[in-house]
Amino acid sequence: MSIRATLILPHHRYVYSLGAPLACVQGTIGKVFDSPENHHGANHQHFVIKVDKVLKFEGGTQNLVGTELFVAVRFGDSEGLAQEIPGLQAGQPIEAQGEYISEASAYPTADNSNPVLPVLHFTHHAVGYVKYGGEYYS
Predict the structure, then answer these.
(1) Per-residue pLDDT tens for 67-102?
(2) Chain-centre distance for alpha carbon 126
(3) Distances 97 to 6, 41, 65, 110 between C-alpha atoms, Å
(4) Longest dimension (CA), the chain
(5) Residue 99: which residues within 8 A CB-CB, separation 6 or more?
(6) What share of the chain is helix, strand, coil (3-state, %, to 5)?
(7) Of 86, 66, 84, 87, the residue nearest 74 (C-alpha)
(8) Is beta strand 119-121 parallel, antiparallel or unpaired with respect to 129-132?
(9) Domain-by-domain residue ranges, the chain?
(10) pTM, two decimal places
């Protein structure tokens, strides 16, 4: 049995938890994708962050500094954000918290492929958030 399989972190108790490490990072937006993707009945806003600083990494051991993360932010229902984060632009600073899914465990999507990047998932209440343009989104 792996160490990760026996590790229980507080955020794992939520329905959408994948049992992954909790990462909080600051970085720069590298790319913003045009259209939200409907995934399992929910819209997701997608963008890529290049990590400059790791504020928290509970349950993880990788060095994420310099890594590009594919970020999926659920919106448009009561389980995610009410609406998309407005005005996301490449080159702008951002902070995000969510579950970290390594590239080995991430699966390709229309926006995250060739190569598949590690994913920051569950970036909304009750586990994650995004800070952008002086606003807090959860």
Answers:
(1) 999 999 988 888 888 888 999 999 999 999 999 999
(2) 13
(3) 23, 22, 14, 23
(4) 45
(5) 11, 17, 18, 20, 21, 22, 23, 120, 121, 122, 127, 128
(6) 5, 45, 50
(7) 84
(8) unpaired
(9) 22-137
(10) 0.85
Rounded to 10 degrees, what is the CA torsion of 27, 34, 126, 103? -60
Count of beta carbons in the 10 Å neighbourhood of residue 58? 14
Does the pLDDT of residue 18 top 70, yes or no?
A: no
Distance of CA 133 to the CA centre of its chain: 17
DSSP run (H or E) holding 6: helix 3-6
Of 15, 22, 40, 20, the residue nearest 129 (C-alpha): 22
Of 63, 76, 55, 119, the closest CA to residue 85 belongs to 76
pLDDT category, 20, cuts 50, 70, 90? Answer: confident
The identity of residue 31, as a single letter, is K
Looking at the domain 22-137, which fold is it?
Answer: OB fold (Dihydrolipoamide Acetyltransferase, E2P) (2.40.50)
